[in-house]
């Protein structure tokens, strides 16, 4: 017998089990004062009025209930609200509460449908009567079933789907749940009759997080709120709990940035609402996989020594138990949940964490995921295993490529001296050599080579690297050591060994790590260049520069192109050198990769070209950019190039003594570089000549001029200065260029011959030689030789034919202020070549960089540019930095002026 309501005998006051109806279950939940209405979600929920079924599906604390309650409170339609409880698993109790909620909102007249009389089942007639009554309504009623995940009986799901299907437009059903309901969602989805709001949409955005924190009396900038959102994945309860805790902190912003999840109310919430709801087996699984960034069923089984992980993970994901599906059977834990589980693991299973990391590392190594293998091997403290995995995979080159070099260096920085073995020696050698620490790097490399010579395998659990992989890694490090010590013979031996060893390692590993071959060839080419074997160097460097592999080989490709640019420059081809150097510099910048040891060679070549073009400000900026790199003092090619360029810049500025001192690269090398020695002598000779000591200048060049056209030209200039024009011409006649010597040398040679002809009174020959020199130099914008020769050259440049050839790039044009129409300057002054602004060829600017530059020219501030382009201020600053670098300036006004010189504006 069902007790009746004394006020209305038709309406029962108790459920079919005889328990009184709980009114709190059928009223809208109260929204707290700190509740934030998110209009985007309210708008989405409005679609529920147009579809029979709506699903709001998210994890515990995702804000589902408050969202639905806030939305429902604003509706004009009748809203029946029911918070489902565990006891509603009996169909009779569930439907009794549904009917009670309909009556409470006035959507169902008392006695119109009836009431479940049997406590064990629900009569089909009752459901049909309910569906019919709803279908007869003029206006649909909205029924919200909160905590619907507590309904686990398939029978109730079938009954609910029956009523929904037959109620027609009279019912709009909204399910608020943590799990997928047992309803044919696919049918409603296919018919366009389903509105869905899921976890990704429920997550707070950084802007919403800022607004929520403001409701709690906290002020946080958007970027800081973004970091908090990343850590919480925008989880509503996590943000609210953090805000409440931050209110009690002396420094709320610092607390929100650094709070310890396992020591907060967030931990209490997740442990109570998620972990403790699971079975013992599932709890054990969650605790063990908490040491992983991501996991699949097989990996989880390896950590638990069970075989049921797949079913458990699928279930956890379906239940929104803070287990996120990444696709292809891979999962990850919510970041905060993972932090809390790891802390819980250390309490419940102390000492197990390192063992779990080692199990994970071994499984990952078998399945070919190297970065995760290394991370877990390091976390387990198994350094022989971890280093062995790196060497075995032929991945030791990644310590140099810039893609993962910083991460790997930091990871292996934790490796203590107690870790011993072949692989650990190789990794230590690679780390030291990557920082150009020669003494320590060579010592570790020597230890590794001794172990290879002994060929004694280590303990089985260490998984010592295979001999071929270890020897090939050793060959790479030998080539780098040869480069840093200027040892051509050592480099050639390393290259020969590498060629043989490539046949002994699996082909797929070589294809997987193209950076190893690219690095080897780059080191070989650099060493050959140091030895003055330009053709052999170009052969190796060209192959390295053309190596495929995308981002993994971009830095060795950049270095190779920089070295090729240096060869072109040393041969006198400024334009070719500049194009290669710009390509080298822009390649790594395009991908945003860091600059490794030695990669500044491209900027160095650009600086040298700038000196020859008399672009002294640009040359200084580029030299300054290379000043702090370790390669400037340890890589012989880089050190010599920088020393010579710096010396030539000082020489141009008239600081002859400082130039001579700067010309010595002060590097220790196994062999002397012929071109480095020759250019050092050229600087010293030019300094003596500038100080009026031609005989001393000639002495400096003795013994270094063989097969060096540049030296021969300088020696000829000295002979001419000493009053021996015949000797000067004889020296020039002895130069054999074979078409390899470029305008930087041939223009200087032509000017020496022209000066000799002019001194002999042969004006026609002098003019013809200067004309040819001007034609050759104009293509390269080569100004320096003419400025060095200005004393005798000015009268010739004042003549009409030569003035026209020089106008606009070497001397001011006829239309410039201070000149008459016939090209003669007022007051009888000669043209001043150095007064002409220096046009440049800059690295190509991207479209967005040009947009920023144009607004810079309009005197817009960084903030105004950001607003105008709809980007962040930080993005604008990043583009500005790139523009400054490509234009070789460091101020806004200089960037605008240089851009106008280049006709970029």
Helix and strand topology:
Layout: E1 4-5, E2 8-12, H1 39-46, E3 53-57, H2 64-73, E4 79-83, H3 91-104, H4 124-135, E5 141-146, H5 154-167, E6 171-177, H6 185-190, E7 194-197, H7 199-202, H8 206-215, H9 222-232, H10 236-247, H11 252-258, H12 265-273, H13 280-289, H14 297-304, H15 309-318, E8 323-327, E9 330-333, H16 335-348, H17 353-366, H18 370-379, H19 383-392, H20 405-412, H21 422-434, H22 438-454, H23 467-485, H24 488-501, H25 507-512, H26 514-530, H27 534-545, H28 554-570, H29 574-591, H30 601-612, H31 616-625, H32 631-634, H33 636-652, H34 656-662, H35 674-690, H36 694-701, H37 709-721, H38 725-733, H39 743-759, H40 763-780, H41 784-788, H42 790-797, H43 800-806, H44 847-857, H45 862-869, H46 873-887, H47 892-901
Parallel strand pairs: 3-6, 3-7, 4-5, 5-6
Antiparallel strand pairs: 1-2, 8-9
Descriptive account of the structure:
With 905 residues, the protein is mainly α. Among the domains are: 23-202, Rossmann fold (3-Layer(aba) Sandwich), CATH 3.40.50; 707-806, no CATH class; 847-902, Arc Repressor Mutant, subunit A (Orthogonal Bundle). The chain contains 47 helices and 9 strands. A hairpin with a 2-residue loop joins strand 8 and strand 9. It has a 5-stranded parallel β-sheet with strand order 4-5-6-3-7, sandwiched between helices. The model is unreliable at 1-9, 457-464 and 814-842 (pLDDT under 50). 59% of the residues lie in helices and 5% in strands. This is Helix-turn-helix transcriptional regulator. Residues 808-844 are annotated as: Disordered. Residues 838-903 form the HTH luxR-type domain. GO terms for molecular function: ATP hydrolysis activity; DNA binding. Pfam families: AAA_22, GerE, WHD_MalT.
């Amino acid at each position: 017998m069902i007790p009746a309501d004394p006020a209305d005998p038709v309406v029962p006051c108790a459920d079919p089990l005889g328990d009184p109806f709980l009114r709190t279950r059928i009223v809208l939940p109260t929204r707290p004062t700190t509740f934030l209405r998110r209009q985007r979600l309210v708008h989405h929920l409005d679609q529920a009025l147009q579809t029979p079924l709506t699903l709001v599906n998210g994890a515990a604390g995702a804000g589902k209930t408050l969202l639905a309650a806030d939305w429902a409170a604003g509706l004009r339609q009748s809203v029946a609200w029911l918070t489902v409880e565990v006891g509603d698993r009996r169909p009779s109790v569930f439907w009794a509460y549904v009917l009670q909620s309909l009556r409470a909102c006035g959507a169902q007249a008392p006695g119109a449908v009836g009431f479940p009389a049997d406590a064990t089942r629900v009569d089909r007639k009752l459901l049909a009567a309910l569906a019919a009554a709803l279908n007869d309504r003029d206006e649909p009623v909205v029924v919200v079933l909160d905590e619907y995940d507590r309904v686990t009986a398939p029978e109730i799901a079938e009954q609910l789907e029956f009523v929904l299907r037959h109620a027609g437009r009279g019912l709009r059903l909204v399910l608020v749940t943590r799990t997928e309901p047992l309803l044919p969602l696919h049918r409603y989805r296919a018919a366009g009759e389903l509105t869905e709001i899921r976890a990704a949409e429920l997550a707070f955005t950084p802007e919403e997080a800022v607004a929520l924190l403001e409701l709690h009396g906290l002020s946080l900038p958007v970027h800081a709120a973004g970091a908090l959102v990343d850590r919480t994945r925008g989880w509503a309860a996590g943000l609210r709990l953090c805000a409440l805790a931050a209110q009690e902190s002396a420094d709320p912003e610092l607390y929100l940035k650094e709070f310890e999840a396992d020591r907060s109310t967030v931990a209490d919430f997740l442990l109570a609402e998620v972990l403790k709801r699971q079975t013992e087996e599932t709890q054990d699984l969650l605790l063990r996989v908490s040491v992983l960034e991501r996991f699949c069923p097989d990996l989880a089984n390896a950590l638990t020594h069970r075989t049921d992980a797949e079913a458990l993970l699928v279930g956890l994901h379906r239940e929104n138990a803070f287990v996120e599906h990444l696709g292809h059977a891979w999962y990850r834990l919510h970041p905060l949940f993972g932090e809390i589980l790891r802390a819980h693991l250390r309490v419940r299973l102390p000492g197990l964490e390192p063992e779990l990391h080692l199990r994970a590392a071994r499984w990952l190594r078998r399945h070919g995921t190297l970065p995760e293998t290394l991370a877990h091997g390091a976390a387990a403290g198994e350094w022989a295993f971890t280093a062995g995995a790196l060497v075995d995979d032929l991945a030791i080159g990644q310590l140099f490529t810039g893609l993962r070099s910083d991460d790997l260096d930091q990871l292996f920085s934790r490796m203590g001296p107690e870790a011993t073995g072949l692989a650990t020696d190789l990794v230590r050698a690679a780390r030291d050599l990557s920082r150009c620490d020669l003494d320590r790097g060579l010592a570790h490399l020597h230890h590794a080579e001794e172990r290879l010579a002994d060929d004694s395998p280590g303990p089985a659990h260490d998984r010592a690297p295979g001999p071929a992989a270890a020897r090939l890694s050793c060959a790479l490090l030998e080539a780098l050591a040869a480069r840093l010590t200027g040892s051509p013979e050592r480099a050639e031996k390393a290259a020969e060994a590498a060629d043989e060893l490539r046949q002994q390692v699996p082909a797929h590993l070589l294809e997987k790590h193209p950076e190893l071959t690219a690095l080897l060839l780059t080191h070989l080419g650099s060493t050959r260049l140091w030895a003055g074997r330009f053709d052999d160097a170009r052969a190796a460097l060209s192959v390295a520069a053309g190596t495929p592999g995308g981002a993994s080989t971009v830095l060795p490709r950049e270095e190779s192109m920089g070295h090729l640019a240096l060869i072109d420059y040393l041969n006198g081809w400024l334009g070719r050198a500049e194009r290669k150097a710009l390509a080298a510099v822009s390649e790594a910048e395009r991908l945003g990769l860091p600059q490794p040891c030695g990669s500044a060679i491209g900027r160095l070549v650009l600086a040298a070209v700038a000196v020859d073009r008399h672009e002294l400000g640009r040359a200084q900026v580029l030299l300054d950019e290379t000043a702090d790199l370790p390669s400037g003092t340890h890589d012989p090619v880089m050190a010599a190039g920088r020393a010579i360029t710096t010396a030539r810049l000082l020489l141009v500025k008239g600081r002859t003594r400082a130039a001579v001192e700067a010309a010595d690269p002060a590097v220790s090398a196994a062999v002397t570089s012929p071109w480095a020695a020759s250019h050092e002598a050229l600087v010293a000779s030019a300094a003596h000549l500038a100080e009026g000591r031609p005989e001393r200048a000639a002495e400096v060049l003795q013994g270094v001029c063989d097969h060096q056209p540049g030296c021969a030209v300088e020696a000829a200039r000295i002979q001419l200065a000493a009053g021996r024009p015949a000797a000067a011409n004889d020296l020039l006649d002895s130069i054999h260029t074979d078409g390899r010597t470029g305008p930087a040398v041939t223009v200087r040679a032509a000017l020496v011959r022209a000066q000799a002809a002019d001194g002999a009174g042969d004006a026609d020959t002098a003019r013809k030689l200067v004309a040819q020199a001007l034609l050759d130099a104009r293509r390269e914008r080569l100004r320096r030789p003419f400025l060095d020769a200005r004393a005798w050259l000015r009268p010739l440049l004042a003549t009409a034919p030569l003035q026209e050839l020089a106008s606009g790039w070497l001397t001011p044009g006829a239309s410039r202020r201070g000149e008459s129409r016939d090209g003669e300057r007022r007051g009888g002054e000669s043209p001043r070549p150095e007064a002409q602004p220096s046009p440049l060829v800059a690295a190509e600017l991207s479209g967005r960089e040009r947009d920023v530059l144009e607004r810079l020219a309009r005197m817009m501030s960084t903030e105004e540019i950001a607003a105008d382009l709809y980007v962040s201020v930080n993005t604008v600053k990043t583009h500005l930095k790139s523009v400054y670098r490509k234009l070789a300036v460091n101020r806004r006004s200089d960037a605008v002026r240089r851009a106008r010189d280049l006709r970029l504006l």
